[in-house]
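Schema walk-through. Below, the input block comes first and the output block second. Nothing else is stored per chain. Lengths vary across the set, and this one has 308 residues.
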Amino acid sequence: MHEDGRIDAVTYDSLSAQVAPHLPLLAALRETRNVTRAAELLGVPQPTVSRRLAALADALGAPLTVPDGRGIRLTRAAELLSEAAERGLAALDTGVRLAREEVSPESGHVVLGFLHLLGRSLVPSLLRGHRARHPGVRFTLVQGSRQDMVDRLTGGELDLALVAPLPDVPALACAGLVDEEILLSVPAGHRLAGRREVRVAELAEEEFVLLEQGYGVRTLTDELCAAAGFTPRIAFEGQESDTVRGLVAAGLGVALLPRFGPGSPAGVAEVPLAPPPYRTIGLVWRAEEPMTPAVAGFLDHVLAAARG
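--- output ---
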């Protein structure tokens, strides 16, 4: 304490640390107004309660109880502490309940990241199958580019991520789920629209509509073009495959994308490439961290679904 009566924050912290383990005792005293009944409520011997009260009073620098007939009366300081104890215990009970729900395999929470393209059929299918067996599990769904998903997973924002291609990051574990063919998307009236197959080298003079850097399909497109001996001429860049297909349908360029489905995209012809390139879609998680039961349960479900 300072000469002017001010008390250091460290003193309050130290006192709080001493009081915290005895919150149930303070709440029991406020409820019973009797040391014996408080001891019975807590399931401890009465002398133990008396010793704890004496230790708390010594730490506080003031008595917590005074005799009142056959019972006790809490001092004003004790009333303030016991009121705070009840509020603190109620908050703790809520926190414990939420924590139990968070990790429960039947009512837990899973934060799942995935590429925009996977939201069309793969993710809904996986969620439907898991929800049929575990209807109480809650999901938070996060979409973005491959690099965004990898960064968020590594940083702890996501529990699991569905990405393609699989990242080569030592801190992450991966499991391939399905290989997806990449096709050439051209406007319906394009000179290549009726071909049975097209070599990537034949696209050297075409203008491309691409996803932005950081997206897996963009990386694959750049690699395929480089292997064919050219750099793609970029007409437009976007963040979603549907936007890219819309620009292709408008005659503004060509694109390399996974097969559209179900059905065919309006105004766009999909042509196989020769040789056919594939990307592996997989599930990724942090390798060295324990999982909650809910997250582990969904991971097991996804892997089982991939095995058929």
